[in-house]
Amino acid sequence: MWVFTGGEYKELNLPESLLQPEQSYIIHHEVWNAHWTRIVENGMDYLHIPFVHRNSFGGEIGQPALEAKSIVEFQIQQTKQGAQVFNRFHNIPSGFSFEWFQPNLVVFKFDEMGIPLRIHQFSVPLNEHQTRYIFAMLMLGDIDPQSQTSIANEFIQPIVEDRLVIESQKGEIPATTEECNVPTDKATLLFRRWYHQTIQN
User: Fold this and answer.
1) Checking CA distances to 199, which of 40, 60, 143, 168 falls within 20 to 30 Å?
2) Domain range holding 61?
């Protein structure tokens, strides 16, 4: 059973990483006091990861780049089902990418950095002010159950650091903003435009 929380129904388009055997996943969920669009937008804000989460997995993204004095190269593409964001460094063999699937799924591809994990973040609206925040964590490779739990906890604890900030933002994402945007904001701006043109209206 599944529930489509978007507007007009389209053909179900799931990422391949959600079609693995059930035992391949660790599931974690919480109820946050926030509109679901705030959580999706936060997940799509790549640049906060190396800074807000610098003492955990964010440091694994940012620290090697700082030490190598890397120049980051971003590629943000609009897709039929949402958007893809690719991040590569010009002089070290590491990077990071994520993908947004309309309406409320963001897939973080940590395996592309050498970490055997993909996190599927679902923001499921319960009502106007509450969202069930679900992580479906796909463990890749031959990892024993104890190590799987340890890896999952290393990611769950830092991710919920965002909760205080997200819950301080009242209501849905705004249609317009007085913020100064930079090219790396393209993904979140695509989401805002899609939401206000497709869902809200």
Assistant:
1) 168
2) 22-199
